[in-house]
Each structure stands twice: as C-alpha cells, then as structure tokens.
C-alpha cells in the first residue's frame, strides 16, 4: 500500500519544519512554495560583499523548539549567542540604556529604570506608585500597564519593545496572546514590579536569552529543506496553489497546471492566503482568517568600512525608538557588534540595519530605496553621531509580514482550528496562530504534523490526478 500523502502549502520556516517532522513519519510529503525560494521571513543575502540576514536574525533560546530544530538538521555546532546584548533606547533626545529587569518593557527594577533616565521625573514617580487595575481573562497590554504604572511606561518602554516583535500598537495587543507570562503576575495581587523582578532574577540564571547561527538564520531554511529531502520529502518552488478542494478521499490541489491528490494538507501560508484556499470548504474558518490583520515593515541594511567609523564608534547591540519620539526609524541593530561570527567573517566591514514602519503606518514602504537609506542615515546621525557614508546597502520590504495579536486573537485561533477539525485532515501553522517568534512557529509546525499523522493512518492516494 502506498504511503499516505501529505501536501504542505507554503515553504517558509513553518512549512519546512512541518515537512521535516512529517517526513520522519510513515507518510509521503510534498511541499508547494509559490515563490522561487524557501524560507519566508528567514532570508540571507549579501551586502557589501558580506553575507548577512535580511530578515529575522535571532531566535528565543529559552523556548526550545527552534534550537532543537537547528540541532535536528545538523546546525547545532553553529548555534551562537549574541556577543553583546547591551541595547539602548533613543528617547527624550538622548541614547539611554535599556533598563534591565523588565518583561517586554514592563519594569521590574525601578532603581535601574531611574538610573536609565528613560522616563521623566514625573513618569518615574507615577511608576513608583502602582495602582490596582482589573484584567479579567485578558486586556490590551498598553492600556492595562498605563492604568497600573502610568502612560509614560507604555510610551517609552512597552511600545518600543513590543514594536520590535509585532510592529504593532501596545494599546491593541493582547497580554494573553503576546506576553502570557505577564497574565498570572498581574492577577496574583501585590506589586507587579516586584513580581517581574523576581521572575527576571529566576530567568537570568537560565543561559542566553537569544541564539543565532554562524552564517545567519538565513541558513536554517536550506538545512531544514535538505533534512526533509533526505527523508523522502519532495520540495517544489514556483508552485502557487490556485485551488484547494475537499474530496471524499482527501484533498485536490491545483498547482502549476496540474492537480495533486492528498490525504491531508498543512496550510503554512499567511492568513489571507489560507482564507482564500479554504473559502469553499470551510467558509467559517476563512472568515476568521480574513479578520487577522498584518503589519508591514522595511529593513535597511547598511555596510560601512570600519576605518570610516573611527570618529564615531558604535557600541552595544543597537537601540530601539519609542513611537512617541516621532523618528523615522523604530530600531537599529549594530549587527557587527551583536554577532561575533559577522565580525570574524568581515573584520574590515561594519554592518548595521534599521527598521521602519508598523501596523497601519506603512507609508514608508512606498518610498524608494534611496529615501529610506537617507532617512535612516539622518536618524543615525542624530542618535549616535554617525557621519560615515555606507559603501553598500540593501532595502528589504516585508509587506504584511507580521500578524497582529489583539485581544481575542487566541479565541479566534481556537475557532479556526475547531472549524478545521470538523472538516478533517487539514491543519494550519505559521506566525498567525501560536506566536510570531521562530520557536513558536516551529512549535506550531510540530503540532500540525502530530495532529495530522494519526489522521493519515490507513489511507492512501495515487498522487497526481491529472496533467
């Protein structure tokens, strides 16, 4: 009997991870990727003759899924923590140290917060006088923390930290979905800052918070794809899926001028694409998927000659910018400082990058590359005194790249999965569901694979149904 056939639609890291996990089971796997490359938002490129990440560059190490995947596909020896995690906030017209002992910007160490001078004296005084605030099952993190610790904590700390992850608005993002570890601390009574300080102390003994890969995270998709192929999976680029329909025996998939039959399907594409493919057979799930909103952002990567930076040396890992300060950029990462492998591979070059744009504020993406570079350089000149001229640059636009997690998001995800469970032999995974970080995405891919494996037992298809 032929092996059951599972088709994975989407070749980002979610789809590739699902294929890798499925290929270890007794199923035949096909991955269909619409574009000409695998990896999604994990993307490497060359800027100024230096290989560098043009998408995500680090992964949370204290959640194990992504690190375990890297080890599974043979990249364990290339895992490498940042050389420095000394970040800053560019706020109130100065570069100020990011205070330690905080949880996604919510402070735990008020003495460190005072020493950083991130807040005005009035804002600091308000933070020292916590007020009780109802939270219930969930709340927008910005509004809740503003009620409890003051608006300035949100504007100058929570907003830039959340913005670095979601490119969203703190007054809309769900505590339960985005910062679940904060929810029990908020509910337990007593001082929230003291609870965060205790949590931070315990977490500080757990090793590095983040990990990267020598050569960049852009190398991970290729390794995962190679692992899946070595275990029998077929991976195809240039194969957009035009239609997906349920049949009595499984699924029919129209792609690249032919039809494939599958016993089960993994949808590892953004929510709007998943909605379009499910509209005929799962209209309720499609309606929920269409309601997921996305933020767009642009990354500007700049290459300098180190000799040109002698008069304006750059220290630390970079800085975040609170939206309240109304700058063009929302963050800058000093990549050559942050990643030792990058400094070792290109000792005479210095790479950094800036990011622009956030949810419903994506006009910057319509500017041409030269203007985005100019705006980045202008802000860098003001923030850190950088006057050197880059010898190369790259602009990467991630349109609709980051799903938003408002209050009610997790309930929506549960409804989507309930609708699909009723349909049978189909699962979803990716950044729109269980978290936008790489470990969460990999964990969701494993969940999808495990969900489908028993559903394919004893079933089979004949593969290609038509030419």
UniProtKB/TrEMBL annotation:
Catalyses which reaction(s): coproporphyrinogen III + 3 O2 = coproporphyrin III + 3 H2O2
Stretches for region Disordered: 448-467
One GO molecular-function entry: oxygen-dependent protoporphyrinogen oxidase activity
Co-factor requirement: FAD
UniProt binding sites for substrate: 241
Keywords: FAD, Flavoprotein, Heme biosynthesis, Oxidoreductase
Binding site for FAD: 33-34
Pathway info: Porphyrin-containing compound metabolism; protoheme biosynthesis
EC number annotated for this UniProt entry: 1.3.3.15
Biological process annotations from GO: heme biosynthetic process
Domain Amine oxidase residue range list: 13-452
Flavoprotein listed as a keyword: yes
Biased composition (Polar residues): 454-467
InterPro entries membership: Amino_oxidase, FAD/NAD-bd_sf, Flavin_amine_oxidase, Protoporphyrinogen_oxidase, Zeta_carotene_desat/Oxidored
Function per UniProt: Involved in coproporphyrin-dependent heme b biosynthesis. Catalyzes the oxidation of coproporphyrinogen III to coproporphyrin III.
Family per similarity comment: Belongs to the protoporphyrinogen/coproporphyrinogen oxidase family. Coproporphyrinogen III oxidase subfamily.
This protein's name: Coproporphyrinogen III oxidase
Native organism: Kitasatospora setae (strain ATCC 33774 / DSM 43861 / JCM 3304 / KCC A-0304 / NBRC 14216 / KM-6054) (Streptomyces setae)
């Amino acid at each position: 009997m032929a092996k059951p056939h599972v088709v994975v639609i989407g070749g980002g890291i979610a789809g590739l991870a699902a294929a890798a996990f499925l290929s270890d089971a007794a199923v035949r796997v096909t991955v269909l990727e619409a574009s000409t490359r695998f990896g999604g938002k994990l993307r490497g490129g060359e800027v100024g003759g230096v290989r560098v990440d043009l998408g995500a560059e680090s992964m949370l190490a204290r959640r194990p899924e992504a690190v375990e995947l890297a080890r599974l596909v043979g990249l364990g020896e290339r895992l490498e923590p940042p050389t420095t995690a000394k970040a800053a906030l560019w706020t109130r017209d100065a570069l100020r140290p990011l205070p330690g002992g905080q949880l996604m910007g919510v402070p735990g160490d008020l003495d460190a917060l005072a020493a950083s001078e991130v807040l005005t004296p009035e804002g600091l005084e308000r933070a020292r006088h916590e007020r009780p605030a109802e939270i219930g099952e969930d709340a927008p993190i910005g509004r809740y923390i503003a009620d409890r610790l003051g608006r300035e904590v949100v504007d100058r700390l929570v907003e830039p930290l959340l913005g670095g992850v979601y490119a969203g608005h703190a007054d809309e993002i769900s505590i339960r979905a985005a910062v679940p570890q904060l929810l029990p601390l908020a509910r337990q009574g007593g001082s929230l800052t003291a609870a965060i300080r205790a949590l931070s102390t315990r977490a500080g003994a757990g090793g590095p918070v983040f990990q990267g890969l020598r050569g960049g995270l852009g190398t991970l998709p290729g390794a995962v794809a190679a692992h899946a192929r070595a275990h029998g999976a077929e991976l195809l680029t240039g194969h957009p899926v035009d239609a997906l329909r349920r049949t009595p025996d499984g699924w029919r998939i129209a792609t690249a001028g032919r039809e494939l039959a599958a016993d089960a399907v993994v949808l590892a594409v953004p929510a709007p694409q998943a909605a379009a493919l499910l509209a005929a057979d799962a209209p309720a799930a499609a309606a929920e998927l269409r309601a997921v909103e996305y933020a767009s952002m642009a990354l500007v990567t700049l290459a300098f000659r180190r000799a040109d930076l002698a008069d304006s040396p750059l220290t630390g890992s970079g800085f975040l910018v609170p939206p309240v300060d109304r700058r063009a950029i929302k963050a800058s990462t000093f990549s050559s400082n942050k990643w030792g492998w990058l400094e070792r591979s290109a000792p005479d070059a210095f790479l950094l990058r800036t990011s622009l744009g956030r949810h419903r504020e994506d006009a910057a993406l319509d500017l041409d590359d030269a203007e985005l570079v100019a705006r980045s350089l202008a802000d860098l000149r003001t923030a850190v005194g950088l006057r050197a001229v880059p010898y190369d640059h790259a602009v990467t636009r991630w349109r609709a790249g980051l799903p938003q997690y408002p209050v009610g998001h997790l309930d929506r995800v549960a409804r989507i999965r309930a609708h699909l469970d009723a349909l049978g032999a189909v699962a979803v995974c990716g950044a729109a569901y269980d978290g936008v970080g790489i470990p969460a995405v990999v964990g969701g891919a494993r969940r999808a694979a495990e969900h489908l494996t028993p559903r394919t037992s004893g079933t089979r298809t004949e593969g290609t149904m038509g030419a």
